[in-house]
Amino acid sequence: MSQSVDRALTLLDALGDAPLSLEQAASSLGVHKSTALRLLRTLEEHGFARRQPDLRYRIGGRVLSLAHRALEDFDIRQVAAPYLAALNARCGYTVRLAVLHDGEVLYLDEVAGHPAAGPSRIGRRAPVTDTAVGRVLLAGLPADGPCEEAELAAVRRRGWAAEPSEHREPVACVAAPVAGSGGRTVAACALSAPAGEVPSTELVRMVPELLCTAEAISLAYGGSPTPRWCENRCGARPAGHASRTSGRASAGRRR
């Protein structure tokens, strides 16, 4: 990779975290301000960055457009969407869908709750360790050793995971796996809420609703979930595997 391309991509990644002044951009790259300005202007010309009135640069709309198109390639997102919305309508908390991608948690979709559990995480990444979503996704992988097996075995047996302080933020979260063909975990469905406003016990009380939704998504995706479905709440069907088309349609038959 050429040095200019490497610097531009590094700068783009930094802009994704927070707006940067010219000085901050140059410092993050370890280059002169003139070099950073040239890169920023190039990104701005192509819509990947934009300059704010305070002269700081932030991520541009072109990045959001590309991210949206990339997320649409994840078919599980389209299948799960009506079920996430229905769960949010029933419980009022933030509902998220995430997958394991390149060794990290990648958030594909979100329906904000009231109160919302922080800013949207759609398209954002997070570490798999020390999070409820990450543990659910890791539990769906082959064991990597006795220590990890001991830690994740309980998640496999229970069918869900809880995390009182995900990402070191005051957020409570419970997550459950979504199964694909052969019972393989393909995604995680999660309920999140501000820990200071919603006690973790309240989210744990909602676990049956979460499991119900995860099972419904699994069936709609053509997977082989465990029998925790509840047709009245989720539209999941116990007989056979629902097609992806009929799975979406069944979402409209909820109470």
Structural description of this entry:
The structure is a single chain. The protein has two domains: 3-66, Winged helix-like DNA-binding domain superfamily/Winged helix DNA-binding domain (Arc Repressor Mutant, subunit A, Orthogonal Bundle); 74-253, GAF domain (Beta-Lactamase, 2-Layer Sandwich), CATH 3.30.450. The strands form two sheets. The chain has a six-stranded antiparallel sheet, with helices on both faces. Strands 1-2 form a two-stranded antiparallel ribbon. The chain is α+β, with helices and mostly antiparallel strands and 255 residues long. It starts with a helix and ends in a 5-residue tail after the last helix. Mean pLDDT is 80; it is low at 236-255. The chain has eleven helices and eight strands.
Give a short summary of the structure.
The chain is an alpha+beta fold and 255 residues long. Helices cover 46% and strands 18% of the residues.
Topology (SSEs and partners):
Blueprint: H1 3-17, H2 22-29, H3 33-45, E1 49-51, E2 57-59, H4 61-72, H5 75-91, E3 94-101, E4 104-111, E5 125-126, H6 132-139, H7 146-158, E6 161-163, E7 171-179, E8 185-194, H8 200-205, H9 207-220, H10 231-234, H11 244-250
Antiparallel strand pairs: 1-2, 3-4, 3-8, 4-5, 6-7, 7-8
Helix pairs in contact: 2-3, 5-9, 5-11, 6-7, 9-11
